[in-house]
Amino acid sequence: MYIITKKDGPRKEDVSAKQMIRENWGTIDRLANQISGGRWQDIKQARAAKTSVAEYDRRSFIGYASVDRAATARPYIRISLNNRVVVVDEDTNRQLLFLGEIRHRPQGRVFALATRANGFFDPATDEVLEALAGLDGCVLSEDEVDEPFKQELAARLGFAAPRDI
């Protein structure tokens, strides 16, 4: 059961608890340091040192790695677990092109090129559509190996065969 009142502001219990903590902070701090074997003091000093950074530095974020945009991409074809067919840069693993998806139909697995007619909101570019027009609607084998299909896509797009992942 929840009791909802129209009273504004903090409850008396919250105010008294915060006041008690504020008044006894020295004792709480000393006990925390004693229980942790001095680790509490180290944590406080590390926090104080981190907040003294005056300049914003993007490289300080975990996982941030600058990418040289001028470098040439090394594309390869990837078919993801959700059957999306994309061109990905081998060095950065960034998606370069979305080609379409493999759909399950009564006749088997069918490649659907990324066009508005196939229900895609953002279709592929005209150059890609021209190069891959013959593959739209082609039935793929039920094998788990899609390497021949990837090689055909790479050959039509004009880059090297896909790498093994």
Task: Summarize the entry for a quick read.
By secondary structure, the chain is of the alpha+beta class.
How would you describe what is shown here?
With 165 residues, the protein is an alpha+beta fold. The chain has five helices and five strands. Strand 2 and strand 3 form a beta hairpin. The longest helix is centred in the first third of the chain and has 13 residues. It is elongated and about 80 Å long. The mean pLDDT is 80.
Strand content: 15-25%
N-to-C SSE string, H for helix and E for strand: HHHEEEEHEH
Overall spatial form: elongated
Oligomer: single chain
Structural class: alpha+beta
Biggest β-sheet: strands ordered side by side in the sheet: 1-2-3-4-5
N-C termini distance? 55 Å
Structural features:
165 residues; alpha+beta; five-stranded antiparallel sheet; 5 helices; 33% helix; elongated
What layout of secondary structure does this protein have?
Elements: H1 12-23, H2 25-35, H3 39-51, E1 75-79, E2 84-89, E3 95-105, E4 108-113, H4 126-132, E5 139-140, H5 147-157
Antiparallel strand pairs: 1-2, 2-3, 3-4, 4-5
